[in-house]
Write a structure and sequence with these properties.
With 235 residues, this protein is mainly alpha-helical. The protein contains nine helices and no strands. Helix 5 packs antiparallel against helix 6 and helix 6 runs antiparallel to helix 8. The model has no long low-confidence stretch (mean pLDDT 91).
């Protein structure tokens, strides 16, 4: 990602064309995809796209900045219930994107690399990766089955006496930590005869996934949790 000293974050504006948006940061292609924006959008602007989908423009621009600037600290102060509803929808969509696209793609690259490993190293790496996938699935399941339904209820005026967003904050694990361990294993400890090209393919996928997860976690920590806490205080 870019540092804000290298690029003015105000480059993202409601009038900006979607094509210009992608030229500024190609990684935003996956954000548009998650929002259901298909290629072939012509000269559509950010504001037109947001209006078409009923999405708060400033929230979308904030998400773009999160995925573009590695030192960007989003502020939730001007957001309310409408933005919170869209944040939850976006997080749910990201879960599906990871589960249906990113992890299967990484798994395919991993299997191809493991075939070139010796049996022992391949078996260890496969177990490590499978354990990580299980951890990710459990993390998403907790949010889908506990956190998001709680937020949905809160938005409808239903306040649970048995749960609060503080419980999520206290137990919110970073699912990108094990990816660092996986990178180290692949770069440093697999035998030299493991094909370099296949190793690189896996590492590229891991780095992209890791960067995306960090943005995902930032949205949860800096937008979701404080916004829900604010609504709890008002209830």
């Amino acid at each position: 990602m870019k540092n804000r000293s290298d690029m003015n974050e105000n480059i993202f504006s409601p009038e900006m064309k979607l094509g210009e948006l992608i030229d500024t940061n190609y990684r935003l292609l996956s954000i548009l995809s998650r929002l259901g924006v298909r290629l072939g959008f012509g000269e559509m602007s950010v504001e037109q796209m947001c209006r078409q989908r009923g999405l708060p423009t400033e929230l979308f621009l904030m998400i773009c900045r999160i995925y573009t600037f590695d030192d960007y600290a989003p502020l939730y102060d001007t957001f309310g219930r409408e933005e919170l509803r869209h944040i939850v929808d976006y997080l749910k969509t990201s879960h599906r994107y990871y589960s249906d696209y990113v992890i299967p793609r990484l798994s395919g690259e991993m299997d191809a690399m493991i075939e070139s490993c010796d049996r022992l190293h391949g078996k260890v790496l496969k177990r490590f990766f499978d354990d990580y996938c299980g951890e990710v699935a459990n993390h998403f399941a907790y949010e889908e089955n506990t956190v998001f339904p709680y937020v949905d209820g809160l938005l409808k005026g239903i306040r649970s006496s048995e749960y609060s967003i503080g419980s999520f904050e206290d137990n919110h694990s970073d699912i990108d930590e094990k990816l660092s361990d996986m990178k180290s294993i692949i770069m440093k400890y697999l035998p030299e005869n493991t094909l370099t090209e296949q190793r690189n393919d896996v590492l590229f996928e891991i780095y992209r996934f890791e960067e995306d997860l960090k943005c995902h976690t930032l949205i949860e920590n800096r937008l979701l949790i404080p916004l829900v806490a604010k609504i709890e205080r008002e209830s």
